[in-house]
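To whoever is on call:

I kicked off a structure prediction for a single chain this morning and the downstream step that reads the tokens threw a length-mismatch warning. I double-checked the sequence; it's 132 residues and nothing unusual in it as far as I can see. Pasting both halves so you can look.
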Amino acid sequence: MSDLTRIHAPDGVAAAAQYSHVVLGAGRFVAVSGQLPLDEDGRLVGEDDPAAQARQVFENLRRCLAAAGADFADVVKLTYFVTDMAHLPAIRAARAAHIPDDRLPASSAVQVAALVRPEFLMEIEAYAVVSE
């Protein structure tokens, strides 16, 4: 696991409750492509259900991180692509199951007009740094 430093509010920057403004780490960089709410057979999980989709996306992120020898403790940045900002509470709840509030990564949330398929409500990508 990485030895990461999180700066929640640098001098002159307003504190954010849902993410860290800066995360520093040294080691091997891992980029995980945007994950979608698909099970291991490529079937949609949670049609019209943002909470179910978010749980599946975080499970997919967990599996991808593990394949790289990483886990959520190594994540330095998450980017959320959502079709509706109203899905963010469901995403935060799914994230909380994997990442405690005192270890929040840097984050960005972007509302998009559409994702690759209309039934997808979200896509989430991750960056991690794993100690060598």
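Update from on-call: the warning came from a stale cache, not from the record. Cleared it. Sanity check on the structure: The longest strand covers residues 122-130.
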